[in-house]
Amino acid sequence: MSNLVIVGMQWGDEGKGKIVDLLASSADAVVRFQGGHNAGHTLVINKKTFKLSLLPSGIVRQKLSIIGNGVVLDPIHLEKEIREITNQGIDINFSNFVISSDCFVILPIHRYIDSLRENQKKGSNKIGTTGRGIGPAYEDKVSRRGIRFSDFKNIEELEEKFISIYNHHNIWIKKFEGKEISYENDFEKILKCYHNLSKYIDDTWLLLKQLNDKNKKILFEGAQGFYLDIDHGTYPYVTSSNTVAANAFTGSGASPNYLKKMLGITKAYTTRVGNGPFPTEENNDVGEKLGKIGNEFGTVTGRKRRCGWLDIVMLKKAITVSGINGLVLTKLDVLDTFTDIKICTSYKIDNQIFEDYPSSMSSQQHIIPIYETLKGWKEKTKGITNFKNLPLNAQNFVNRIQSLVNCNIDIISTGPERNENIIINEVFN
Ligand code: IMP
User: Fold this and answer.
1) 77 is catalytic
2) Of all protein residues, whose CA lies closest to atom 11 belonging to ligand 1?
3) Which among 33, 56, 126, 358 has most CB atoms closer than 10 A?
4) CATH class of the structural domain 104-196
5) Domain 3-102+203-262 belongs to what architecture?
6) Class of the 266-423 domain?
7) How far away, in angstroms, is 11 Cα from ligand 1 center?
């Protein structure tokens, strides 16, 4: 048994898509277990770019791709994404793509509420959501109002569920908008999507058990990143699901016994989209430069990402809580032209030094980062595939991170192409 979970260690956009794609070549199946089409994974294969939001990254390699029960799924979006990826020459059929029948459905009203709420919030109270209905869909799930694919077996009962969801939300919508949203059109639309998607729907927990029993290799693909986790992240500036590695089990029905390797992905610096604390943010020329070289624009929303230095305090918590036993350091080449490179090693809050990430929002907003400054390498590392070929200062940077977080860096990504990596340890064999 050598299954693997891959999760982001920061605020998402760590380059997980590329790493999942790289490792998917050794996998038999790739599983999404949380989030929805708020995620955005860009894969560059033979200079061809694939943009995925909901489909597991393994689909591009024609691996068995599974959407687990922990995902909230917008059927209208999924149909569109399937069409786009199919038009790029990828074959998607019921033998290589399976959706859990326990998956909760994002309805058009969820997307509507998401935008409405964000528009009502002022300034820094805005979360900066992707506006895709993720939060409202998870809320309905937890409130036991939600609709799952398995509910489509009984159309009469399904319609009643639709009516009760729309009635529930219309109380609030009417108060703010002076009008109600009728369910009929949306019901027809979603029903039509379901008929097109039903060939993919199955009991995925059982499929995972069968795969594991046959010693097939399963890769669990996380979306977003540790600090967007609903419990462990920078609440309330988070997404609505658990992004930690442990959710690979609850979000897919896989047993915790299936897993032994938890791989954490971190950039060589930090980025964030949306509002919320960001202790090492460089809201200046340095941040601009990181963003420009790193092409830091959101895959889903196109928003400019906030940029700053690598934060070891944050990384240590993410490693601990997710049980990470190997790291991937991405975008090392983005730092190639910097004379000095900073790493945040501790925090000062109200004149006290902290080695661990504080949980209160007010402390998080008053962090003064304490940095260690390393010499830059001022040489091209893009495309290097051997650690010994890295400039000495780049090697020092990598080694320093490893010793500060006490965790191996197994892979270093040195460019967007699939083969631009330094494989230090084989993680999936
Ligand atoms: P939501 O997930 O759309 O509700 O957005 C909540 C927060 O998570 C916002 O700050 C988003 O920008 C952020 N977010 C959601 N998905 C991603 C992602 O895939 N990458 C980076 N940030 C994300």
Assistant:
1) no
2) 129
3) 33
4) mainly alpha
5) 3-Layer(aba) Sandwich (3.40)
6) alpha beta
7) 8
